[in-house]
Structures
1.
Amino acid sequence: MRVIITENYEEMSKRAAKIIAEQIKRKPNSVLGLATGSTPLGTYKELIRMHREEGLDFSKVVTFNLDEYYGLAPTHPQSYHYFMFENLFNHININPRNVHIPDGLAKDIKAFCENYEEEIRRAGGIDLQLLGIGRDGHIAFNEPGSPLMGRTTIIALAEETIKDNARFFKSEAEVPRLAITMGCGTIMEARKIILLANGEGKADAIAATVEGPITSQITASILQMHPNAIIIVDEAAAMKLRRKDYYRHVNRLLEEQGL
Ligand code: GLP
C-alpha cells in the first residue's frame, strides 16, 4: 500500500480529486465506488470545481455507493442517498441512471444485496473505489468482526459508530441501528482504492490499518492485501505511523519517476 502524507485536509482532498479526475479522463465511462461521511466532502468540492472550471465530464461515469442506513428513505436528509445528491451529483453532469446507492427501504434484503453485486459485475467492476475510515477502523459499514471476504449485506452498527454519526442527527436515538453495506470482499475487487483520513481522531485507526496485523477487528487492514491501494492522510491522521519517513522517501522517488 502506498501512503501519502499531506500537510492538511485541503491538500489531501486535492490529491484524491486529481487521481479521480485522471481516472475519468483516461476512461470516460469509469465505474467509481463512492463514499459518504465528512472526509470526502473536500474531494467532492474539488471535483465539482474541476467540472465547472475545467470541463471534467461525468456524463458517462457510473457510480456505486458503499452503503446506506437501513430504514431511511432516499429523501431523508440524513440518508446517504440525499448526501450524495446534495454534495456531488446535483452539481456535476452525471446521468442519474448511472448512479447506484443501496436502497435503505429494500424489503427483500438478501435479493437486494445479491442484485447490487450483480449490477457491479454487469458494469464491469469498480475501477476506482474511494473510502473513508471509521474510528474503529471500519470501511464502508464493515464493523469490527465483519468477514474480510464478505459481500454486500445488512449489518448492525457498532456503538462507537452510532455515537460518532449522531452528530448528523437530532439525537443519538435517531441514528439507524442497521445499514446495507458493500462487503470487504466487494471493495477488494476494485482495481484501485483510495482511502482518505484526516484529523487526530483517525490516527489510531490509520496506524492499525497500515502497520498493524491484518484482522477483521480493523476491517481497513485488509487493504494491505490490495495491489493498488493508496492511503492519503493529513499530518494529524498520520501522527501514529512509525514509518512516516520511509513513506515520504518512497513517494519522493516514485514522484521523480512521474508515478
Ligand atoms: C460512516 C461511513 C463510512 C465513513 C465513516 C467515517 O461510518 N459508513 O464510509 O468512512 O462514517 O466518517 P467521517 O468521514 O465523517 O469521519
2.
Amino acid sequence: MIHFVGAGPGAPDLITVRGARLLAEADVIVYAGSLVNPALLDGRKEGCAVYDSAQMTLEEVLSVMVPAAQEGRLVVRLHTGDPCVYGAHREQMDALDAAGVPYEVCPGVSSFCGAAAALRAEYTLPGVSQTVILTRMEGRTPVPGREQIEALAAHGSSMVIFLSAGRLGELSRRLIAGGYAPDTPAAIVYKATWPDEKVIRTTVSGLAEAAAKEQVTKTALITVGGFLGASYERSKLYDPSFTTGFREGRA
Ligand code: SAH
C-alpha cells in the first residue's frame, strides 16, 4: 500500500497523528526535500529506504514506489503541507490507478493555515470577506486566463498567493490593477511554523520593498485583504441575541 501523507507546513509536530504513525511504520519514504522538514524522518524504522523527490522525475518516483508496494512494503509519499494544493498529486494517483496499485491519502496542515496561525488572523471575517482565494501567478506553469491575478483581485476577498514571492513588484501592480486599493493590508509569511519563520506586515503597494528588506524571495505566502485590518463585525453564532439549533437567544 502507498500512503500519500501531508507533512504539514514545517514544524515536525504539525503532522497528523495518522501521518506520524505511517511514517514510523514505513519501509520506504519518498519525501519532497525542497520543502518538507527533514526532522520528520528522524523517527523512521531502521532499514527504511529514503528518497528525496526534489531530484526525481514523476517516472522515477513511480519506479521507486510501485515495485515496493507490489512487494508488500509500506510506502509513504510525503508531501509538503497538504497534497491537494500544488502537490502534483493527481498525476501520481492516476499512474497508480493505471498500474492497479492501491493507495490512500492522509491530509496535512497546508501552509495557508500555518500562515494564518503565524499572523494570528482569520481569513473569513463577517463584514469583511467570506471567501478565501488560493492562487498563484503563472511561472513556467501557466494559469488559465480567467484566473489571472487582476480577475481574482476584483472580488476584493481574502487572497493567499503561493509560489510567487520572487515577483512581488508585478504582483502588487496586478493586485492594484484588479481593484485592491494600494493601502490594502498585506502580509508576507516566510517559512510559516519553521524556526526561522518571518511575518512581514505591509500593504499591497509595499510588498516588493518589504520582501527585499527582509531578503525573502521564496518559501513564502503572500496574503492580502481587509482580514488583516482592524475592523470587522462580530459573529452571529456567538451573539447573545441569536438563536441557533443549540442555544436560545436572549433579548
Ligand atoms: N502543498 C503545499 C504547497 C506546495 S507549493 C501546501 O499545502 O502548503 C510550494 C509553495 O507553498 C511555496 O512556494 C510557498 O509559496 C508555499 N509554502 C509552502 N510551505 C510554506 C511555509 N511553511 N511558509 C510559507 N509558504 C509556504
